[in-house]
Write a structure and sequence with these properties.
By secondary structure, the chain is of the alpha/beta class. The chain has eleven helices and 17 strands. The strands form three sheets. An eight-stranded parallel β-sheet has the order 5-4-3-2-1-10-9-6, with helices on both faces. Strands 11, 12, 13, 14, 15, 16 and 17 form a seven-stranded antiparallel β-sheet that branches. A two-stranded antiparallel ribbon has the order 7-8. The protein is globular, with a radius of gyration of 23 Å. The two termini are about 25 Å apart.
Length: about 450
Amino acid sequence: MSNSFEKNWTNYNNGYPLFDNEVSRYISVAPSKNQYRLSRKPFYCFVHFGMNTATGREWGAGVETVSDFNIKKIKPEQWVNTVKAAGASGIILTCKHHDGFCLWPTEYSSFSVKYTDYKGDIVKEVSDACRNGGIDFGVYLSPWDMHEPTYGTPDYNDYFCNQLTELLTNYGEINEVWFDGAKGTGAREFEYDWDRYYKLIRTLQPDANIAVCGPDIRWVGNEAGKTRKSEFSVVPAYLRDTESVSKNSQHDEKDAAKLQRLKSTDDDLGSRAVLSKNAYLCWYPAEVDVSIRKGWFWSKNENKTVKSSRKLFNIYLNSVGNNCTLLLNVPPTSKGVIYSKDVRVLKGLGKKINEMTENPILVERLGQLTKNDGFIDFEFDSLKKLKYVIISEDIRLSQRVEAFDIYIKKLNGKYKKAASKTIIGSKKIIKLRSKKCIGARLVIRQSRGTPAISEIGFYE
C-alpha cells in the first residue's frame, strides 16, 4: 500500500519535535474562560440598524439630524426568531454607528432615539427580546463619531466611557462588546484610550468577550467570509495591538472592495516558523464578519444581492468549520423587520446546518491520546454513505494538531485517503461527497505534544 500509516505523530511527526521547550511554550497558551465559552457558540449575528437604515446610506454623512430618523417601530421578536432559525446563538446590535446616532436614550447626547418620534428604547427592546428568546446579546459602539463635538479631544474618551457605561449597566448581561478601528479619511487625528475602555468592560461585564479592536477575538482580515488554510488561535501577542488593527480597518466607504481579498503576507499567523520568532504569544481566535447582503445596512436596492442559503452554508463550513467564529450581518429594514428574502435564506441556512448532523453514524469522545494512537480506526455497523467528519480538539489544552488525514475503509477492507488537512482547533468540518465505506481511520501526522481530541463524529 502506498499510504503509510506508520509515519505519524507518535514517531515521525513530519520531522518536527513532538516535545521540546518551544513546543511547551506553544501549548502553554490556552483560552480564557470567556474565550472557551465563545468556542461553544461559534455562530452569531450582527444587526446593523440605525440612522443609516432611515436615510438609506451605508455610512453616515455627518450632517444627519434627529428628524432624519423617521422609523416608528421595530419587531425585535422577529429578529430573534429569524436568527434562531438560522442556527445562530446571539445578536450584536449597532447601538451607535459612525454617524453618532444612539439607539438608546443616552444622557450624554441629544442625538439619540429619545429626541425622535420613536417611542421607546431600541437597545432595551432588542436586549429584552434576546433574553426572552434565549439567545445572547452584544453591543457595537463605534469609537469614531461624526456628530459628537468633543471627538478628537481628550474629553471624548470621557464621553465614550460614559456611553459605554450606560450600555454595560442598563441592559443585562452582555456577551460581546464589538469595536472596530474605522475612522474616516477626513476625521481628526485622535488616539482612543483602549486600555481604559477594556478596564471598564472587565469591571462592568467581566464575562463579555471584546472584539475586534480588542484582546479576546481577532478580525480574520477581510469581510468576504474567507479564512486561511490554517487558522491558528495561538498567535504572536503583537496581533492584539489595536492600533495596527485600526490601520487595516475600513477608513472610507470606498474601501469595502479592498476588504474582499486576503493579503498573501497575512496567510501564516501561527505556524512554528512564525511563533519561534516571537517571544510573546496569546490565544486570539479569529472571527469572520460578513454581511448577508452587499452592504451592511439594509437598502431596497440590494435585495438582489442577498446571498443564497448554499453560499452562506459554505461560509459557515469555511469559518465555524475552520476554527473560527462566524458573525453574520442581518440588517433589518426601515419597517423594523428583517426582509422576507433574508428570512427565507436564513431559514434555509439553519436547515442545512441541522441536516449536517441529523444522521450520525458514529460519534466518539477520545480525550488525550496515547502512543498507541498513531492512527485510530472506527468501524461502522454497515455500509454507510459518509458525508461529514467533524472533529474538535480539547482547546483547554491549547491547539495542538498541525496535520492529519482521514481515510475511508472500503468494502474490500482497503483504505483510501478521503481528506488531508492541517489544523483542527475548536472545530474542523470536513465535507465529503457521500463516500461509501464500512469504516474510517484518523491519522494525526503532526502535533505539538500529545493530541487531545474532544470529539470526532461521522455523519451520513
